[in-house]
Structure formats: C-alpha cells, structure tokens
C-alpha cells in the first residue's frame, strides 16, 4: 500500500490539510477559511468550534481528492497559529469563550501591571520573552479573571487550556469524555509551550514562579512533549492514524526549510512575518529586541533553540487594503497595482495596527501612513504596503545579525507572499543578500509532516529531509547601497511617528 504523510496546518485565517509523498511533494490539498471576530478595537477572536469543524472538512476533502483513506497515511503532523488561546470544558468539549487570537491586545493592563516594577524584560531570563500582549499566558489569565466561574472550574480540574495545537490534538484523539473513544489526549510540544510565558527555557517544563506570577493553576495545563513523537492514535475522521508531530507554525517552517544547523534562517510571509534562526542546543539571549524560543525537539534528542523576530502585520496589511479599503479586488492584484509606479512616491506605511512587535515591542504604537503629498496615487499606496513588509524584515535581520554575531549570507523564504516577485526583489534589495524561494513553498505544513514522518520511521533521519530541499527561484540585490540606506532612514523615521499613540 502506498503510504503518505498528512499535515494539518491551522492558521490565523484558514485551515489546510495537505498530503505529502516521500519526496516532500504535494499530493493533495484542501483549504477552508474561518471567521475573524472583532468585538472591540484591538480585540481579535476565533470560534474554536468553527475551527474544529473546518479541520474535519478539509481532512475529508483532501483525502477524497487523492482517492485516499486514513489508512494510506503513515502519520499526521499538526502546525498551528501560535499563542492563540483556548480554554474549554474537559467533559463537554465546549469552549468557555471564543479563542483569544495572538493579535489580541486586551491583556495590555495585565502586561502593564506585571511590568510596572521590573520592566518589560522582567521574565526574559526564564522564558526568553518580553512582557507583551502577544503571548498566551496573559491571555489565559484574562479568561480566568473575566469569565464567570472560570477560575473555580479551572482549579477544580474541570477546564483545559491550550494553544490551537492542543485543542486539535485533544479533539482528534477522542475529545470530550462522553464521546466515543474519549477522553482526548491533552498535550503540547516544546515549541508551542515556549510561546506561553509559562515554560522555563532550560527545564522545558512549566515554571512554578511563572504560574504564580500569571495566577494560572497547573491543573489546566497540557503535558509538554517533543515536537516529533507519537502522541496517540486518531479517532473519527482520521481513525487509526498516529498523531506524531506538533510544531508552532513558524518553527514548522524552519523545520520544513531544513534549517537544522546553527546559523541557518528562514522568513515566513503570512498574516504576520516571522524570521527564525537556528541557534543550536543552547538558548541565545537577545540584546536587540528578539525572542529566544524553542525551535523543535526530535524524540529524546536535545532540544534546539532559535532567535525569532516577530512582525505582527505583513499579509494582513494586503488583506486590509482589500477588505477594509476596497483598493484591490483580491490579494494577488496588489503586485500589478504596485507595478504601475516606479517607486513609493515618498510614502511609508507602518502597519502598527496592534502595536509594534520586534524589535520595538511598543504596544502603545498605532499605524501611520507618512509622506503623503498630492502626487501620491493608489499605486504608490500599494507599493508602500508591500515595502512595509520588506522594511520590517530588514529591521529584524539587523537585530538578528547583532545578536548572533554571524551576518546572514542568504535568506530562505516561504509563505503566501513569496509569489509576489516585486516584493521578493525589493526584499533582496533592502537586505543586501540573496533571497531564495524553495521548490515546495508549503514549508509550514511540510515541516509538520516531516516531524510526524520522522517519529514513525517514514523518513529515517534529517539528512533524508535535506535531500528533498531544492531552490525554485533566487533574487539578487540590485539596489544602490546609498539609496538603500537613505530609504531605510526614512522608514525608521516613519516608525517613530507611531510611538505613544495610545495613552
């Protein structure tokens, strides 16, 4: 029987299920979008039940397209939007509230309280992260404090917490106690646990001091496992298939890009934009506004760490231009509109819609469009929207070079925006290094598949995965260095105009 590996890629705006063959090629894919809920400015929610329904739908669709059944899959891996926080009843399986999405800023007061005496880096030595609304520990605390009865139920062991990976593994492996085959398995992996502000970077376990600081009861927390191991057997739509891989989406892309050696890096262009550099088996403390995070752990091997530069708004800015402003009919149209002009016309768009992430970590910032004159057209606006992603990436790369001490020689890229060739050329221009797109652009899902396949022996070692990687297209820098630095200076000036908008 021909065997494949499946990957469930649950992202910020949609869910996909992709079937891969042994060469890392895509056999079948199905995708479904889910709703974005905005109860108040700065609040962003998802319906976990809708996400679970979409998961079952895309699995069935992808298998049917390829004429496959679950037993054709050697294993399934999961990758997910990180930090998005779910709290649910272990007996009924019902969430107590919508999921709080990683972009949500309602925990600003909690962050302010925790940072008041010792500052934003109060816990960085333990967890590798600054105090920010981004992470799921403060979001869990908000749910426990604001949902009537939640804290009491949590302390009694009636509620379960997880990022989206935990929610989906629990559902896939049985779900609520009353369901056939339940209860589900309540686990996460080191990469997702490192995004909670609750896991100690060195012990790879929940840290008692962090639980006390966040006022989180241990009873709600999942067990922390490796990124590549068999967690359990699926029931329902994937009945009998081992669930054997779990990686946060950006770590999965690092894995899918086969960045297995220290110093190798990738950048993913999705809803946000995330650059990760493998730093080996010891955590590297950042002095430049980056995150120290877990990259992955394979079985019982030593954990691998990464430096990460997180940008909140990248592809989401293109979606905003499409949905909120109506300037383009669909996302791919932005490239053609941007090509109607030769440059940005002096316009810089800093999309600090939910504050600024790396390297600034300024929750008080809000978006600005700077440099407007009567000369500016919609083409200039479109070009400034694309350039915003490239300039933000330049700032992160500068920080990464400073922290690692090893200047990056080229950048592997993936995600939906890498098909925009104008953006990719501009990215190479402003970085001053080659930008390389792989043959298989679905590297996030591929990383989850690789992790699952390694756990069951579908691939025997990481060298098998390296052999699958191949370049599809490379962009070389062509911008005059003096022009590059002049435009970068203007970009950084525009960034300062976003500061202190929120009192």
Overall description:
- It is a single chain.
- Helix 12 crosses helix 13.
- The chain has 503 residues and is an alpha/beta fold.
- It has 16 helices and 21 strands.
- It is globular and about 65 Å long.
Q: How is the secondary structure organized here?
A:
Blueprint (H helix, E strand, L loop, with lengths): L3 E7 L3 E7 L5 E8 L11 E2 L1 H18 L7 E8 L4 E5 L9 E2 L7 H8 L8 H4 L8 H11 L3 H6 L3 E5 H9 L14 E3 H4 L14 H7 L8 E3 L2 E6 L8 E7 H8 L8 E5 L3 E8 L10 E6 L7 E8 L3 H9 L9 H6 L9 E3 L17 E3 L7 H27 L6 E4 L6 H11 L3 E4 L4 H14 L5 H7 L2 E5 L5 H16 L7
Parallel strand pairs: 1-5, 5-12, 9-10, 13-19, 19-20
Antiparallel strand pairs: 1-2, 2-3, 4-7, 6-8, 11-12, 13-14, 14-16, 15-16, 17-18, 20-21
Helix pairs in contact: 9-14, 10-12, 12-13
Principal-axes shape call: globular
Rg estimate, integer Å: 22 Å
Strand runs, count? 21
- Main beta-sheet strand count, sense and barrel state: 7 strands, mixed
Structural class: alpha/beta
Strand-residue fraction?
A: 15-25%
Please count the helical segments: 16
Distance between the terminal alpha carbons, to the nearest Å?
A: 63 Å
Give average pLDDT, whole number: 93
User: Helix content range of the residues, please?
Assistant: 25-40%
Instruction: Pick out the low-confidence regions.
Output: none
- Placed side by side, the strands forming the largest sheet appear as 15-16-14-13-19-20-21
Oligomer: single chain
């Amino acid at each position: 029987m021909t065997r494949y590996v499946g990957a469930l890629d649950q992202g910020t705006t949609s869910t996909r299920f992709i079937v891969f063959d042994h060469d890392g090629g895509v056999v079948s894919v199905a995708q479904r979008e889910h709703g974005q809920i905005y109860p108040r400015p700065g609040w962003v929610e998802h319906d976990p039940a809708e996400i679970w329904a979409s998961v079952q739908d895309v699995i069935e669709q992808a298998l049917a397209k390829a004429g496959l059944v679950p037993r054709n899959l050697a294993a399934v891996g999961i990758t997910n939007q990180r930090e998005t926080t779910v709290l649910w009843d272990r007996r009924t399986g019902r969430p107590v509230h919508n999921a709080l999405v990683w972009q949500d800023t309602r925990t600003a007061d909690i962050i302010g309280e925790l940072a008041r005496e010792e500052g934003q880096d109060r816990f960085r030595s333990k967890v590798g992260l600054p105090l920010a609304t981004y992470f799921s520990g403060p979001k869990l605390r908000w749910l426990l404090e604001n949902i009537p009865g939640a804290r009491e139920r949590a302390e009694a062991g009636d509620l379960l917490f997880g990022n989206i990976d935990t929610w989906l593994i629990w559902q896939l492996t049985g779900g609520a106690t009353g369901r056939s085959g339940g209860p589900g398995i309540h686990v996460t992996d080191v990469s997702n646990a490192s995004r909670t502000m609750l896991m100690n970077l060195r012990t790879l376990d929940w840290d008692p001091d962090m639980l006390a600081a966040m006022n989180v009861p241990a009873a709600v927390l999942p067990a922390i496992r490796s990124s590549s191991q068999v967690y359990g057997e699926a029931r329902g739509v994937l009945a009998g298939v081992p669930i054997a891989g779990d990686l946060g989406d950006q770590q999965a892309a690092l894995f899918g890009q086969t960045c297995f050696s220290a110093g190798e890096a990738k950048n993913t262009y999705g809803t946000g934009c995330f650059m990760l550099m493998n730093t080996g088996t010891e955590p590297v403390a950042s002095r430049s506004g980056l995150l120290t995070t877990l990259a992955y752990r394979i079985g019982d091997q030593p954990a691998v760490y990464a430096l990460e530069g997180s940008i909140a708004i990248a592809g989401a800015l293109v979606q905003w231009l499409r949905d909120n402003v109506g300037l383009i009919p669909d996302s791919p149209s932005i490239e053609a509109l941007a090509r109607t002009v030769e440059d940005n016309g002096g316009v810089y768009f800093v999309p600090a819609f939910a504050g600024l992430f790396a390297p600034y970590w300024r929750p008080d910032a809000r978006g600005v469009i700077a440099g407007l004159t009567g000369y500016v057209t919609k083409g200039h606006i479109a070009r400034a929207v694309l350039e915003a992603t490239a300039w933000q990436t330049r700032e992160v790369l500068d920080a990464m070079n400073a922290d690692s001490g090893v200047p990056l020689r080229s950048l592997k890229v993936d995600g939906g925006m890498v098909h925009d060739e104008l953006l990719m050329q501009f990215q190479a221009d402003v970085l001053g290094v080659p930008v390389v797109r792989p043959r298989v652009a679905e590297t996030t899902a591929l990383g989850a598949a690789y992790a699952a396949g390694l756990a069951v022996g579908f691939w025997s070692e990481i060298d098998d995965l390296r052999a699958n990687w191949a370049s599809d297209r490379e962009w070389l820098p062509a911008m005059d260095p003096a022009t590059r630095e002049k435009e970068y200076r203007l970009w950084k000036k525009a960034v300062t105009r976003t500061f202190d908008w929120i009192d």
